[in-house]
Amino acid sequence: MEIFEIKDEFIPLNKLLKASGIIDSGGIAKLIIADGLITVDGKVETRKRCKIYPDQIVEYNGQKLKVAKK
Question: What does the DSSP assignment read for 19-53?
Fold first, then answer.
């Protein structure tokens, strides 16, 4: 599991996917989220701007990413 540190209180899901390198572009991230291929804490998430907070776990295609506060 990878750790991704954020400075702010939260990060939008689509920006997290792009910034972490899990997805190559924001446009692709939006499509993948809309298709229901992303889970947040084990639940399917279809909101592209869903707020992701420290200690939440995002998963896509077998890759897990835990968000941490910097």
Answer: HHTSSS-HHHHHHHHHTT-EEETTEE---TT-EE-
